[in-house]
Amino acid sequence: TPETPGKKDTAAASPRPAAPESDAAKGPAAPAPPAVTPKAPATPPEKSSPDKATAPERPAATPPAAPPKAAAGPAQPPLPRTSSAAEETAAAPKAPRSAQPAAPDKPAAPAAPRVPPRTAAAAEPAAPDKPAAPDEPAAQRKAAAETADEAQSVTALPAADRLKVCIATAEVTPLAKTGGLADVSAALATFLHRAGHDVRLLMPRYARIDTLGLAIEPVPGLQRIPMSLGHRVGHFSIDSTTLPGTDLTIYLLRCPELYDRPGIYTDGEDEHLRFILLSRAAIIMCQYLRFAPDIFSCHDWHTSLIPLYLRSIYAWDRLFENTRSVLTIHNIGYQGVFGAGILGDLDLDDTVYQLHQEDLGRGRINFLKNGLLHADLITTVSPTYAREIQGDEYGMGLQDMLRWRSSILVGILNGVDYGEWDPAIDPLIPANYTPENLDGKATCKLELLRNLGLPQHAERPLFGIVTRLVGQKGIDLLEGTLPAMFGRRQFAMAILGSGEDRYERFFTKLQQHYPDRVCFYRGYNNKLAHRIEAGADMFLMPSLYEPCGLNQMYSLKYGTVPIVRETGGLADSVELVDPRAGTGTGILFRDYDATGLAWAMATGLELYKNKPLWRQIMLNGMAKDFSWETQTERYVELFRALR
């Protein structure tokens, strides 16, 4: 799941909220929006019951924004800035993309559950009285193994089958990551490229990227491009490097004034400018490169203004005449909500009517909501999550909008990079193993226990947890379940994670109370994460909600039986065990309460006693294929259908 800290992006606004938002939720205090005489959009679709709402027909085309002034320098496309009426004859604009009307009125929705704030990743101190991290395995065992760092060959596609895709995102692994957004952005771009499609991947050049030792070069013709955001006038540049582990070029948006900061996200007053620029720079980069994408792939609120801009101030450019926008929601709890005082910075000029007018009237601008309003296709990271976010419990204020656009909302489960997560070739675990020979998993368990300072009881069940310690992940259920379970059952537990102080204190005390059964490593350690996946018998994910989740899919590949709550991507990737038939891959519980979690853990412990059945459950999971090669094909099918 993408993770985007910052005070301003945690508020969720509905078309008709039950109560006004607090000033803190809106971001900076918002003055009354300037007087705007909006152009009357086409009549919105008639209201129907929320479950039957359909996407609206596109209204009649509106006059295009004026074409921009030409930028300085030879052979460069115009700098896309809305200009005066006198300049409208400078170029012949295309018939613009139609504007979407504001969402129809909906009844007030119940307040959505609060989303716990993101917590910055903690340092990686060793757990009290425990080793800091396991040793590296012998390098010679992996000398012949293919690793994720090797560039893969690119498939040659006929021109008619080759998609042109521009992916704009705030995070890409391994350059900048706070969560699943970075993994998906990197994997989708990489596997589309390997499949033979023409991919242009853009992200900001954060300060931390310059510490990675990459060979970064300026892109000729894309240096010091002038840009104004509201009353602010400056410039930006585009650099490039090769995405590590691939032969894919990644473009980096350089603007030190906005991105040369310690973290990826900030609480600064100019946070909105950082992602307005990212959205506009993606479009401008394509103009300068004369790259006419079939698809603009936009991710979370950070680039959700691209669909709006394509329908407004860039609608004049025939380069994008056949371009369609796809907006992917990684976590709907983070929407980019700001006060209406930022309106001038959007530079919408006479196309301001294309913003969500009801929100504007209430003094706020929701980046994600406006992206949903204008996108040609909306995807999210699992089929179940796509259904859940249309309901009041998980819609976070956008459920009415999503029900209204439900005909273009699709859930695609995220994929796994088996070049990194495969016990047969994983260089970070003590012994490799396959479904045909599981001996190495027993070795991994004993070595994990030894590394963590726990008694090496091979037969005692071992639970693993690798997670952010926040409420979304169901840690409060563990607080209410584990003390009693430890008193009644014999098992051990390895926990890796950091987050809210309350939860860190809980696991620290649990370790102190059961020093021979619990090890809590506060922080994150990738090597230890791999070893927990390989060495644990069961993996716990009792999430309140989980858009997709990846660890349950890693666990399946490693023969570590997942115990998960039936929500989001967890429900789509884990199949409930049927002991009589010997089918299924894990244990799911439905109700979000301690009783449900206790039942699931107890069920797992009972099944573990039946060794032949347990082995079959492990093999069932290891046989599943959640590779990105498979999942990328779903995106390709949808992208082609939009052409």
Topology, element by element:
Elements: H1 23-26, E1 164-168, H2 180-194, E2 198-204, E3 217-218, E4 225-229, E5 232-242, E6 249-254, H3 256-259, H4 271-289, E7 295-299, H5 306-311, E8 324-329, E9 337-339, H6 357-361, E10 364-366, H7 367-374, E11 377-380, H8 383-388, H9 399-404, E12 409-411, H10 439-451, E13 462-469, H11 475-488, E14 492-499, H12 501-513, E15 518-522, H13 526-535, E16 538-541, H14 551-557, E17 561-565, H15 568-573, E18 587-589, H16 594-609, H17 611-622, H18 628-642
Parallel strand pairs: 1-2, 1-7, 2-6, 7-8, 8-11, 11-12, 13-14, 13-16, 14-15, 16-17, 17-18
Antiparallel strand pairs: 3-5, 4-5, 5-6, 9-10
Helix pairs in contact: 2-18, 10-13, 11-16
Describe the structure.
- The structure is a single chain.
- This protein has helices at residues 23-26, 180-194, 256-259, 271-289, 306-311, 357-361, 367-374, 383-388, 399-404, 439-451, 475-488, 501-513, 526-535, 551-557, 568-573, 594-609, 611-622, 628-642; strands spanning 164-168, 198-204, 217-218, 225-229, 232-242, 249-254, 295-299, 324-329, 337-339, 364-366, 377-380, 409-411, 462-469, 492-499, 518-522, 538-541, 561-565, 587-589.
- With 643 residues, it is of the alpha/beta class.
- Strands 1, 2, 3, 4, 5, 6, 7, 8, 11 and 12 form a ten-stranded mixed sheet that branches. It has a six-stranded parallel sheet with strand order 15-14-13-16-17-18, with helices on both faces. A two-stranded antiparallel sheet has the order 9-10.
- Strand 5 and strand 6 (249-254) form a beta hairpin.
